């Protein structure tokens, strides 16, 4: 049993069954034993790999997207670029390197990184050594939005790491799934909250109308709260946002809570604090939150299509031209991994947000 499993078992014994959201929050963010607190989980030696860690091309093209958004908003003298959940800092570093060429953009930038893990903050500080940046524990310490200095948000695989609640449709209505300690099997087990909660008020109309008994649905109040805070910054500063993740284009039922360790799926209730826990992002719920608070969400774009529209093939050819055989092969396999529909190309989706009536956004249909 891991040290964190002991802590959670004591917690359950003391206060009763635990929601999936509390369990996920503790497993990922417990101040001593949380997954993101005790390790750098990225890459071959870790548990999973993210797009910025696959190739510099990903961050470079996102950098060009932001530079274009800045130009289209009149090249303001000051601009806040805010990354949520920056991992090793690779995406921000690639954005900044690629936009050195955009005259005036870098000079206007104030860089902000919103990160809860002190361990990952250290990696980010190393990666971004040459730049001045400000770190934040949460969105509350960001500078207040002002119409003269847009707030630009970027987050890759951030929402999928935020806690979810799970609900099961029973004959008596929606009941929350909870985690208990089972003395017989000496492990954690699933159960249902005996009391009704108000969480089902967050379900989409379609799920409420159509879900059958036995269906599982997921809601993430913290994701909605954070989207609403970002929306307020974007709406009041003529800002933009780009959010990349895997998940549902339209709210849907299903159990998407999953655990990954050493690049393999494992049971979510085992390896507390030693496996990555994620859930599919409900893009519809997040887009609705932005739209409610003075922003416009553009139709979701698949990652592969976005990168193609931003010129990933030309960039890959340019990088290959200067590379040796091994580098050429690496670039070609990274290109495939990021854009191919069998790989990350259509699984990962990009949600672009702008202030209502804001200028166009490169690559997105409705721009
Ligand atoms: C899956 S990683 C993605 C890292 C990076 N964006 C990438 O693509 O490589 C999730 C990141 O979000 C951070 N994180 C998780 N919950 C957070 C929260 N509530 N506030 C800020 N950062 C958080 C983690 O520490 C980690 O840096």
> Structural class of the helix and strand makeup?
alpha/beta
Spatial extent as radius of gyration: 21 Å
User: In CATH terms, what is the fold-level topology?
Assistant: Rossmann fold
Please tell me the CATH architecture by its name: 3-Layer(aba) Sandwich
Overall geometry = globular
List unreliable stretches of 5+ residues.
none
In CATH's first tier, which class applies? Alpha Beta
Bound heterogens, unique: S-adenosylmethionine
Oligomer: single chain
- Biggest sheet character: 9 strands, mixed
Number of strands: 17
Helix content: 25-40%
How many structural domains? 1
Alpha-carbon distance between the two ends: 52 Å
How many helices? The count is 14
Mean pLDDT: 96
Strand portion: 15-25%
Question: What would you note in describing this structure?
Answer:
- The chain has 367 residues and is α/β, with parallel strands linked by helices.
- The chain has a single domain (38-163, 219-355), classed as Rossmann fold.
- The chain has helices at residues 3-15, 20-29, 35-38, 51-54, 56-72, 90-98, 105-108, 118-127, 205-210, 221-237, 283-292, 303-309, 312-321, 325-339, and strands at 18-19, 79-84, 109-114, 133-136, 151-156, 165-170, 173-182, 187-192, 216-219, 240-248, 258-261, 264-266, 276-278, 281-282, 295-297, 301-302, 348-355.
- The strands form three sheets. Strands 2, 3, 4, 5, 10, 14, 15, 16 and 17 form a nine-stranded mixed sheet that branches.
- Helix 10 packs across helix 11 (283-292).
- The longest helix has 17 residues, at 56-72.
- 45% of the residues are buried.
- The model has no long low-confidence stretch (mean pLDDT 96).
- Bound molecules: S-adenosylmethionine.
- S-adenosylmethionine is lined by residues 36, 42, 50, 52-53, 84-87, 91, 114-117, 120, 156-158, 161.
């Amino acid at each position: 049993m891991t040290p964190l499993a002991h802590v959670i078992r004591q917690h359950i014994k003391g206060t009763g069954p635990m929601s999936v959201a509390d369990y996920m929050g503790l497993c990922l963010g417990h101040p001593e034993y949380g997954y993101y607190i005790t390790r750098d989980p990225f890459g071959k030696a870790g548990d999973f790999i993210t797009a910025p860690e696959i190739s510099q091309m990903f961050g470079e093209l996102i950098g060009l997207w932001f530079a274009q958004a800045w130009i289209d908003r009149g090249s303001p003298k000051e601009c806040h670029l805010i990354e949520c959940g920056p991992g090793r800092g690779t995406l921000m570093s690639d954005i900044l390197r690629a936009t050195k060429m955009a005259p005036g953009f870098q000079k206007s930038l104030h860089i902000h990184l919103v990160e809860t893990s002190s361990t990952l903050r250290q990696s980010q500080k190393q990666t971004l050594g040459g730049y001045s940046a400000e770190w934040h524990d949460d969105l509350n310490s960001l500078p207040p939005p002002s119409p003269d200095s847009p707030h630009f948000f970027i987050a890759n695989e951030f929402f999928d790491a935020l806690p979810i609640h799970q609900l099961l449709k029973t004959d008596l209505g929606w009941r929350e799934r909870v985690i208990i300690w089972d003395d017989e099997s000496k492990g954690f087990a699933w159960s249902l909250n005996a009391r009704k909660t108000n969480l089902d008020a967050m379900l989409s109309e379609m799920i409420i109308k159509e879900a059958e008994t036995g269906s599982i649905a997921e809601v993430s109040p913290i994701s909605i709260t954070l989207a609403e805070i970002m929306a307020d910054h974007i709406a009041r500063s003529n800002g933009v946002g780009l959010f990349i993740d895997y998940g549902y284009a339209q709210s849907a039922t299903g159990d998407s809570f999953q655990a990954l360790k050493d690049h393999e799926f494992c049971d979510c209730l085992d390896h507390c604090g030693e496996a990555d826990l994620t859930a599919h992002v409900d893009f519809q719920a997040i887009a609705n939150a932005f739209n409610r608070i003075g922003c416009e969400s553009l139709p979701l774009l698949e990652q592969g299509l976005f990168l193609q529209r931003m010129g990933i093939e030309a960039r890959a050819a340019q990088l290959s031209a200067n590379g040796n055989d091994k580098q050429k092969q690496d670039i070609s396999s990274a290109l495939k991994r990021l854009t191919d529909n069998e790989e990350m190309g259509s699984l990962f989706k990009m949600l672009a947000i702008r202030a209502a009536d804001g200028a166009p956004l490169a690559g997105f249909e409705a721009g």
